[in-house]
Amino acid sequence: MTRAPRPPVWPRCGRGAGPDDPVGCRGRAVPRPGGGPRACLAHLDGPGRAAYLAGLRPGARVDHRGTTFTDDLLDALLDALYDEGPGRAVVGHAAFEEALFLAEARFTRAAFPDGACFDGAAFLGRADFNDTAFGDETSFRKASFLDHAWFHDARFAGHAGFGEACFRRDAGFSRARFPAGAGFARAAFQDSAHFSAARLAGEVCFREADFHGDCYFGATVFHAGATFRGATFRTAPALGPLACRGTLDLSWTRFLGTTTLEAAAGSVDCRKSSWASGAALRLRYATVDLVDVIAERSLSVTAHPRPFLSGAAGCRPFEEVVASGDPGVRVRSLSGSDAGNLALNDLDLSSCLFGGALHLDRLGLEGCCVFARTPGLRVPLLPVRRWAPRQVLAEEHHWRAARGSRGWTPAPEGVEVRPPAALASTYRQLRTSLENGRNHPGAGDFHYGEMEMRRHSGERTDGRRTLLLLYWAVSGYALRVGRTLLWLLATTLATVAAVALWGLPPEPHRPVPAASPARAQPERGTAGGRLETSVRTVLSAVGLRSGTPELTLAGTCVDGTFRLVAPVLLGVTAVAVRNRVRR
Predict the structure, then answer these.
(1) Nearest to residue 204, comparing CAs of 244, 174, 258?
(2) CB of 363 within 8 A of CB of 385?
(3) Is 164 exposed, middle or buried (0-12, 13-18, 19+ CB in 10 A)?
(4) What does 497-515 look like in DSSP terms, one character per residue?
(5) Could you give the dihedral angle defined by the CA atoms of residues 313, 318, 323 and 327, in that order, rounded to the nearest 10 degrees?
(6) How do beta strands 82-83 and 203-205 pair?
(7) What mean pLDDT comes out for the span 136-149?
(8) Residue bearing the bigger pLDDT, 21 or 364
(9) What's this model's pTM, rounded to 2 decimal places?
(10) Residue 403: exposed, middle, or buried by beta-carbon count in 10 A (0-12, 13-18, 19+)?
(11) CA 465 vs CA 462, 468, 469, 470: distances in Å
(12) Which of 25, 155, 382, 429 could form a disulfide with 360 if both were Cys (CB 3.0 to 4.6 A apart)?
């Protein structure tokens, strides 16, 4: 059983009502001059329509909800409202809810100083609102545009609402002005959407919008923020370059085709976005959030080195909206993302969170990606630093600050401090990524961070923890050349001193011959002789001289220990040098 259509809330014309259609014509009945039967503008007879149109003046309010317009009828209405001064039709508050425009709707250069409402209207032909001025709130919610919809150079002084509107052909908003914001929530753009050089202030919402064709946002400026949360881009090969002073919200957005997004924005929120094909994000000035991103193909995020549109003739740098401070790009978080198809180029990762990210060993780190550094605190009374300079993760900063270490950055509010075991795994995967990219110095720093977290992990047994402690103290995990050289020097000096003091047996007394040689050699029993003998003993232990003098039991033990320790320290020193200089 077919449900009867609901009658409109306005006084309707009712022409053609019958058993099959109890509502009839839904057009609003207009007052008929001189009395007589009421009818909508489309069904007024000739004299009645002429009298109604003759009574209109520029700026008059019109209410033609539900009315069916032909192009001739619409032209006649706009001619009656034409103002010779500005040279355009001036319509007071216009109510065209659920109106039906059978042919081309030509509102070109019209003015609606009190706003207009086209909610639920259907445009079967082309809708031409080029260079139209809307003074107050304007609404096209749930409107249907079956042909081209053109709003090029239009100006919306109040909020413009296009929520759930359907654009079957091209939707053109190039150079349009929206000083009070605009809403395109759940709008459907089934062909191309043109917003090139548009200026949008206030809140701009494309939440859950569906873009089937190309999207043109070249030189578009969002003076506040713009949200595309939950939107779908089916075939959008290029978005931008655009500028956004606030947040460019791409969370939960789906990109089904290959896409290149260029934006200069305060921040870019890509949380839970999905990228089905190859995509490239070229950004400036932005802090980008990549939490829970799903990239089925290659997704690259790059800090664009030059201003967008800088070479365009006569084009002002539209980045002036957001151009303040460093144009570099910072990554806030990769938590929960699958980094297997992700590549980062020339980004600031000094505050990036990696907890929960997958396949970090396949993360592409290209160009000059900057990580956090150890604090520059120095040991009191000594010309050495407490921590050797190295690249570290922001999460190690948070963990050390939570332990009370000075100089480290504490975790922001709401950010969980990760334990050392989890940080060791993250360091290990990122080290592999850097090694794959031939960045051996950076990989060395992350190897150091991994070993540090392993040493501090509570899951290690005492024996393994002791070995890690010795490995750190002696050589800095075979990465600190100065530390190993100091230990080698200290061990050598200690061995020389021990041999000189306890390692040499006493020299028996011998009479001095009358004729001494020209060059006197120091006697072994003297301090100089014992020191020289101990030095020769140490040099022979490392293979620089042959022959070993007779030693006491203590000297033999010291010499044997040094013969074991010295090659190890030399080998560790060589490894440390190689790890620091290889490329």
Answers:
(1) 244
(2) no
(3) buried
(4) HHIIIIISPPPPP-PPPSS
(5) -60
(6) unpaired
(7) 95
(8) 364
(9) 0.82
(10) exposed
(11) 5, 5, 6, 9
(12) 429
